[in-house]
Write a structure and sequence with these properties.
Layout lengths: L1 E2 L9 H14 L7 H7 L4 H8 L5 H17 L8 H12 L5 E3 L4 H4 L15 E3 L15 H7 L7 E4 L2 H10 L2 E5 L17 E3 L5 H6 L2
Helix pairs in contact: 1-4
GO cellular component, one term: cytosol
Keywords: Hydrolase
Pfam families: HAD_2
């Protein structure tokens, strides 16, 4: 079972919107609108910020962002995995499923979730991110390292994610895809139906959906 992180395992967009506006406020800049954030969500942060805040001093933003990011993590305002989502992972593990993460995050953005004392320890076997993969979704080669290192074949895998890019990558790799719609950022109509094996309204529905495949 391969799991996306942002807006799948944890609801990230809303928290990231607040975090990025906090950094803008520290720079004395006006906040971005939620509509702009949603329209550019999924892009690499430093590529998206000039669109979210035109005229932004990108170097200064890049300097301030990690500090605010760590503050949000310490305060439990970012990357919070709800207990019901952890229960869903436990059901998958109890059923004999191997749980892996595949995200487009940079290594430094995911490292805290891979710590030995994190709630994912014992639930997730491995994580694949920009630090240990050569390609990013929607390129289907984003799965190359995962498949090579685990010895799994695409027909033995299922990927759950929240974006059409996730679906495109999975379909291109020959992997079944479950669309998770819990974040509300996207609707099922945003996906090409040829790329979607099943859909769930919330992450806790995942174990049952996998059993029904």
């Amino acid at each position: 079972m391969i799991v996306d992180v942002d807006d799948t395992l944890c609801l990230t967009e809303a928290a990231s919107f607040d975090l990025e506006n906090e950094v803008l406020a520290r720079m004395g800049r006006p906040p971005m609108s939620r509509a702009v954030h949603l329209a550019t969500w999924g892009e690499v942060l430093l590529d998206a910020m000039p669109h979210r805040s035109p005229g932004l001093d990108l170097d200064r933003f890049a300097e301030l962002f990690p500090v605010a990011h760590q503050e949000y993590l310490a305060d439990g305002r970012l990357d919070v995995i709800p207990p019901e989502n952890l229960d869903a992972l436990d059901k998958l593990v109890a059923a004999g499923r191997t749980v892996l993460l595949l995200t487009s995050r940079a290594q430094e953005e995911i490292e805290h979730m891979l710590a030995p004392d994190h709630v994912l320890a014992g639930r997730v076997t491995a994580a694949y991110h920009q630090g240990n993969t050569r390609f990013r979704k929607p390129d289907p080669r984003a799965f190359d390292e995962l498949l090579a290192e685990t010895g799994l074949t695409p027909d033995r895998c299922v990927y759950v994610g929240d974006s059409p890019g996730d679906a495109v990558a999975a379909a291109g790799a020959g992997i079944r895809f479950i669309a998770c719609l819990q974040s509300g950022v996207r609707r099922l109509t945003d996906f090409d139906p040829r790329h979607v094996t099943a859909s769930i309204e919330a992450f806790p529905d995942l174990a049952q959906a996998v059993d029904q495949l």
